Amino acid sequence: MEMVDPDAHMVALKVMRLMRPTLVGLGPMVTCEPSDLAHRLNYAQESDGIAGACAETLAAGQVLLLPQSFGSIYLGETFSSYICVHNTTTHPVECVTVKADLQSNSSRINLSLHEHVKLVCEVNYKTPAGFAQSLRKFFKFQVLKPLDVKTKFYNAEVDEIYLEAQIQNVTTSPFCLEKVELDSSEDYSVTPLNTLPNGESVFTVKHMLQPNNSCQFLYCIKPKADIAKDMDTLRQFNNVGKLDIVWRSNLGEKGRLQTSQLQRLPFECKTLRLEVLDAMNTIKIGTVFSFKCRVTNTSDQAMKLNVRLVPKLSASSQYTGCADFMLDLLGSGESTEFPLSVCPSKLGLVKVAPLVLTNTLLNEQYTIDNVVDVFVVTSDYNNDPTTHQNKMIRYESAANCLSQKQVQLQVV
Predict the structure, then answer these.
(1) How far apart (Å, rounded) are the C-alpha atoms in residues 269 and 395?
(2) How close are the terminal C-alpha atoms of the chain, in Å?
(3) Best exposed site among 11, 196, 201, 373 by fewest CB in 10 Å?
(4) Is the separation of the CB atoms in 82 and 19 below 8 Å?
(5) Element containing residue 235 per DSSP (H, E)
(6) Beta strand 73-74 with 132-144: parallel, antiparallel or unpaired?
């Protein structure tokens, strides 16, 4: 019997990727072979006397092409492979075991973008002489990101946030976005704004993204009631949730990624805030427009507020009405409600303003430049009385509310 060197490996290890074929266009025309149908059609046309210079050609679309290389590996997609162990000798080996591990530089399950990943394959076996052998190989490849996600927050009101998410296809082939949802944290609730009132999507095509194309998704985010009423708590909870994105390639391969935790823009409400409650959007001319306001003391000191709705005594005035009264003492974090009424005198969009709030204890004055808007229509207008608006207004100007940034993606 031939002696076997215990240091020489008797098996060879190979890794082959399992992937689907791709669609490849061969151009508008394909030249035919003599035995093909196109050649027979050409012969029939010649017999009829209608043959042309290009009668041997036949129009064709895309065809399936088998993988010619290892291809690109994208984050979030499934990586499938064959591991082949081949006995390169004429002697049998026994007790063969195969172990495969997928390792990143950080040795964690969630791989970061553009990270080189190693596929570690180890084969253990015994030679005919009884020696235990171990063969280990490392296969290194790069994982690319398939999506580029950018987010933009807008603090429309103190307790209302709008999120715009822009998703771009950075792969080399088109794919279909199957699901783009914002999974809210336990402190916030989310309302998607990507469908019409009848339930149809705002997108004409079902989220099909060509390479380098992008689309936007909009969400309305509100804090839970127990958090919204406490300003100090609301300032601390800035994590609103994660974007969950699922897509499929042109041949149905599924991929899924989640963004890192998205954080809302911090808001500043230094002294007080004013909220308009139960104000109608539309009202008929000559009708009294009444609405209720809620003022909250967000400072550290007590307030004694004087409320004054400044009248406009001019020909261009859009409404008539005024107010001047005192509120009860407001402690830190407390709120109170009060009604206001005006009578619109012109058609169109009427802006009720300004409202002056004066803290008589410290002689500080706060001016609300735009309290509420109402659309005034003629008396024969068919108005829906169930339509109301509920909007928040702060005396601080919301400067530089928009902020766009990229977010990190991770495998789920």
Answers:
(1) 9
(2) 54
(3) 196
(4) no
(5) helix 231-236
(6) parallel
Distance, CA of 410 to chain centre = 14
Cis peptide before 28, with omega less than 30 degrees from 0? Answer: no
Tens-digit pLDDT profile for residues 247-282: 998 778 889 998 888 988 776 666 888 888 888 888
Would you list the DSSP string of 239-282? EEEEEEEEEEETT--EEEEEEPPEEPPP----SEEEEEEEEESE
In whole angstroms, give the CA distance from residue 361 to residue 303.
7
Digit-coded pLDDT (tens) for 218-254: 999 988 877 776 777 777 788 889 999 999 987 788 8
Query: How does DSSP classify residue 77?
Result: B
Q: Which two tokens stand for residue 182?
A: 């914002």
CB 257 within 8 A of CB 147: yes
Q: Up-side HSE of residue 351: CA atoms within 13 Å toward CB? A: 8
372, burial (CB in 10 Å: exposed 0-12, middle 13-18, buried 19+): buried
| d(C-alpha 140, C-alpha 133), whole Å | 23
Q: Is the C-alpha dihedral spanning 317, 321, 327, 331 positive or negative?
A: negative
